[in-house]
Amino acid sequence: MSDATPTPTSPHAAFVAGLPKAEIHVHHVGSASPRIVSELAARHPGTVPADLDALRDFYTFRDFGHFIEVYLAVVDLLREPEDIRLLTYEVATEMAAQNIRYAEMTLTPWTSVQAGVPIEAYVEAVEDGRVAAERDHGIRLRWVYDIPGESGLPSAVDTLGFALDHAPETLIGFGLGGPEVGVDRPQFKDVFDQARAAGLHSVPHAGETTGPQTVWDAIHVLGAERIGHGTSSVQDPELLAYLVEHGIPLEVCPTSNIATRAVDVLENHPLKQMYDAGVTVTINSDDPPMFGTTLNREYEIAADLLGLDEQGIADLAKNTVHASFLPAQEQAALAAEIDAYTAGTGPLAG
Ligand SMILES: [Zn+2]
């Protein structure tokens, strides 16, 4: 996100920028840009610089440890419901500017409740931000509550309680994030069972920093309907075949995988293997400003890795729409919007 970082150019940059898109793997706090953090820091002077240039410096991605440092600094600035409302509204505003029409955004309410914001106030704040962003920018947001895996089962039980007792109608999914090593998926079975029984979709992270067994666990034990990352699925042909057969999409976030070292360099990203195997791949940005990227940039990267033309990029965007939990009619409408855009910008367009 620094001015010092050269932005690689893509022949598809303009097409991607105008393309109507959906995003289904993106974290609320992780989407705080330097501009937004500057506003928050001005509200709470002290720990984080409010000066935008200093913040851009702070945001220049160095390594995973630095990402955690930036993430925690932002968490520390979310002290009052108004901070959470502001973050929600501004993140949605920046997404809308990228022509993202619909997002299933991951919230981690447990962290804010730990920081002293009551769950009722938290829900009201994110909902206020969501409604205002939809009114002002036409972007629709739906929520996924995720368990911060590093905080273990107690945080999972609390998060389930938030989902069962304090869910807005816009809560559609239940997730599990944080580190995978040392955080076995099966321990969360009961919590996921109850969340699913309450009608929430199961969308855990799995196979990002551990092997394919974690993805199997997510599917068989947690009832995963989509897999967050699933990067290591390519190590197991049987798993790839299962994902294809059962129509389980992968939420792929290429730059994030490099940043966390789940993959060493972009050239070695397994996106093409997933794609060639026939798995439904969707392109997402995870924690975009903290990893120095945007959803548009992730599409450019994916187009490059897969060798896609504009129609191929549009098809990829439609994958995400169809992998989302939007009602069928709304999926069809957004897919039609993508088709109309593609027809209007394609080589045959006058
Ligand atoms: Zn994630």
TrEMBL record:
Domain spans labelled Adenosine deaminase: 20-340
Keywords: Hydrolase, Metal-binding, Zinc
GO molecular function term, any single one: metal ion binding
Enzyme Commission number: 3.5.4.4
Xref: Pfam families: A_deaminase
Record flagged with keyword Metal-binding: yes
This protein's record includes keyword Transmembrane helix: no
Protein family (similarity comment): Belongs to the metallo-dependent hydrolases superfamily. Adenosine and AMP deaminases family.
Protein's name in the database: Adenosine deaminase
Organism: Nocardioides panacis
